[in-house]
Predict the 3D structure of the following.
Amino acid sequence: MSAAETTLAGDALPEDDDEALPADHDAYWDELTDDTLAHLRRIRADARAQQRRDTAFAVYVTVLMVGTYGGFYTIQVIQDGTFHAQVARPDIPWQAALPYAATAVCVLALLAVLRTARWRGPVLLDALTVDWLLPLPVRWDRLLRPKFRAAVAKGAVGGVLLGAFGGLSLCLAGLGPFPVDLLAGALAGGAFGVLTVSASAFVAVRGGRGSAWWTLLLSALAVLFVLQAVLAWYGHRSGPLENVALWSGPWGWAAHTLVLATGGNAVVSGVGWLLAAVLLVGSAVGCALWAGRQAPLISGEFLRERARTADGIAAAVGTADLRRLRLAARAGAGDTHVDRARWSPRPPRRRSLLIPWRDAVALTAAPAQAGWGLAWWTAAFAASSTAVAADTTAARLCALAATLVFGYLAAGRWVEPAWTEADDLRRSRLLPYPYPSLMLRHALLPTAALAGTAAVGCGVLALLGLPVMPGVAVLVSAPALVGAALVSANRGSMPQALFIGTDTMMGNTAPVQVLLWYVRAPLVICTALAPAVYYLSGGTAHPTALVVSAALVAAATAGALSWTCGRARRLYAQ
């Protein structure tokens, strides 16, 4: 420590290099930290005031929009739920699937928060604070602990709001009275919100190391619970399995409260619910206390990298560049560093298999892409399977929309090598294929993988005696969905003219134009697929309906691949 390192309040470190520095617990460091943080508050007072005004304005606009467009509806729902309380019916599909569905939602929420912590963490400092404050010899706990407490408070409030919304949804589905569902959802959501934010501190302290293992574990649990929910929807309930799911971890303890509120599960009793509530609250409090002590141990390198990542994400959001946003988040999480795969397929002997082999090597080197693709594809399969048991047209349409959206997300993960190819066109010039033909060859492996997985799912449905046509609907839609993902991969940079828009009586059209530019490929292809998937997932076996559905699927696939060639040719010519 040199004599040039002084505090902004005028105090200097010992001038003699041979003189020993004060001990770590000396009051000198506390005074130095107080002076430094006080100066930081003074020079940033205007910026903090502006930030508070921006936050207040955002809250005001949100409350105004929600109150204007949803206020009367919410009041009516509350009145109906309060004065006409619903009676739980254990025989309806929603009641049977609730234990697994609620557990799966909690697992996915924990997974989302932990993955976000890899590039953001529970404590995020801006670049100016990181560059100026971290090099100074101050106590970091005085800066990091208040921010961590604020993050825990935000997690609790967000959990309460989301849990209350979940309880309201259960009431609207006929699963219990409104006050009980609302209170149960708010309590479970608040405690689980504190737990997830506190657990994210563990990821930040470790710098994201070992994240692949818990990501794989939580993803596998979520897929397992979703499959069990689908089986329960069709009447294949198992008391022991529900008991295992509800006691498998904090996600099950949080689901206990909602299941008890609906009154439709014999596994959850009053004593069991009380024990689960004690475990959930105790684990949340214990995790928060532990994380509060560990927060100062977050490394300065981690804070610097996350500050740069946050700036990159803010820039991508400001320009509405979703691809850049995703790449910035992956870079902050360390996903862009690809190690050599422990296993990779052998090089092919046929020239036609060169591109599928390259795609397979890329996906084995980054298995998270294929894993998430399979997870989304499983969700699409489950959503399509629920359409048979849907008793209303609205429910079938919701299942149809979920099937197509999840299927497109799965295809988007599997065509990640094509995204990489489109990001840097120089890579394609080393290959013996024209760029449009190269893009079509990128569709071979994703289509084969998704269709093969769907075929296995159809076999499982047949063995269980469940309807197979919903699985067939997902299987035949795979080529068209892959084509839509390839069109999106080759869309290029968004024209800046879309940000200008046109002023109308309903406002400026710029947001709608930007949104349509991003979703035009999946919107068009999924709309073309929708009638076929709707009829097939509903179990329709009429010959005319099958012929029409096959024609629609073939037309959507041909259109998607032709569109891919056109977009690839246009992108390469830019």
